[in-house]
Amino acid sequence: MHIRSNLGSFLTAALLAAVAATSVLFAQAPRFDPGAAPVVSPEVSVDRKVTFRILAPKAQQVRLSGSDMPAIGQGVEMQKGTNNVWEVTLGPVDPGAYRYNFNVDGVAVIDPRNPATSESNENTWSLVYVPGADFMDTKEVPHGAVAEVTYYSKTLKCFRRLHVYTPPGYESGEGKYPIFYLLHGAFDCDASWSTVGRAGFILDNLIAAGKAKPMVVVMPAGHTGPWRFGTAFGDAFERDFVNDIMPQMEQRYRVFTDRSHRAIAGLSMGGAQTLNIGLAHLDEFAYLGVFSSGVFDLINRNANPAGGPSWEDRNRAALDNADLKKGLKLVWFATGHDDFLLRTSQATVDMLKQHGFAVDFKESAGAHTWTNWREYLDEFAPLLFQ
C-alpha cells in the first residue's frame, strides 16, 4: 500500500507539471482567434496586381524572392502589419506563371497558404498564375492529362521519373498519335514544363483551336545526378534517353514510331541535349527545336573541359550527310535579344547553315526566362506533324 501511495503521488505531480508546462507554451504562443479571417496568399486582383502574405509573428525580416517576375528582381522587402501578417503588393504583373518563396530571417520557405507548387532542380517553389494570356490560360476547352510516370532505367540502374501529356480523348480512343519529347533546362526538372511552363494548357488551347495536331508529349528528367552551374553536361542522360526512355514510352503509349511522327525540343540545357541527341540520331527525328540554346563550345572554348575534338568535329559525319537531311522537316531556333546565350544561338545557326541545314531562327524580345519559353512552345508546336 505504501508503494502504491508513493507511485500515485509521483504520477499526480508529473501530470500537474505537464499541465503547467503546456499552459506556459500556450501563453507564449499567438492567440487563435476563430473569428479572424484566414491569411490569403497569393491574391491576384482583376488589375493583375499580386499580393503576397505570410503570418510570421516573431520574424524580424521577411523578403519575397522569385524567378521571372520582373517586379521581384533580386528580392523585395515585405512589411509587417499589426496583425503579425507580412505582406507586399506588386504589379500590374504581366500574365504568366511565376515561382516565388519567402525568406524569413534567412530561411527560405514556400508559401504555407498556397498549395500550388513547382519543382525545380533540387528544390520546390510556390507558384502563382496571373491570367490574361489567351494561349496559356485555363479555358473551357477539352483538356488532356499530365501523368507522373515512373520507369526503370537499365542504363542508369535506378528508377526514374518523367511526365507525359496525353491529348484530349486519348483515354477513350484507339488511334495512334505523333510523339514530341520536350526537355527542360539546367535549373529545372521533369515537372517544370507542366507547372511553370504551362505545357498542358498551351497544347490544350492549340489543339482546341485546330492550330496543332493532337500529340503525346514526353517530358523527361534531364539530370542524372547532382548538377551545379559551371559543370559539364555528361552523356548519361542521352544514353538513358535513347536506350530506356524512347523504347519504353513508345511501347507504353499509342504513338507512331517512324521519323516523320517524332519531334524533340528543349530549352537551355535541354536545347543542347536536343542537338546532341538529334544529330546523333538524325534518322529518327524529323523535327528539332532549340529554345535559348546552342552548341556551347562554339563561343566558350572551355565548355568541353575534358578536351578533345569540338562538338562540330564529333558530329561532322551527321552534319555533312545529305541523305539524313532529306527527311528532316524542321530545325527551329528561338532566343531573346537580352538572353546571355544569344551569341551561342546565332553561332550555332550559322554553323548548321554552313553544313547545309535549312534553319528557321527567331530572335524575340526578352531574356533567359519562362516568359519566352512558354511562347516558343506555343509557336513551335503548331509546326509539328503537319
The share of residues in extended strands comes to 25-35%
Overall CATH architecture of the largest domain: 3-Layer(aba) Sandwich
* Tally of DSSP β-strands: 18
What string gives the helices and strands in order?
A: HEEEEEEEEEEEEEHEHEHEHHHEHEH
User: What is the CATH homologous superfamily assignment of the largest domain?
Assistant: Alpha/Beta hydrolase fold, catalytic domain
What can you tell me about this protein's structure?
- With 386 residues, this protein is α/β, with parallel strands linked by helices.
- It has 2 domains: 88 residues, Immunoglobulin-like (Sandwich), CATH 2.60.40.10; 239 residues, Rossmann fold (3-Layer(aba) Sandwich).
- 27% of the residues lie in helices and 26% in strands.
- It has 9 helices and 18 strands.
- The strands form 3 sheets. An 8-stranded mixed beta sheet has the order 11-12-14-13-15-16-17-18, sandwiched between helices.
- A hairpin with a 2-residue loop joins β7 and β8.
- The longest helix is centred in the first third of the chain and has 27 residues.
- The protein is globular.
- The protein starts with a helix and ends in a 6-residue tail after the last helix.
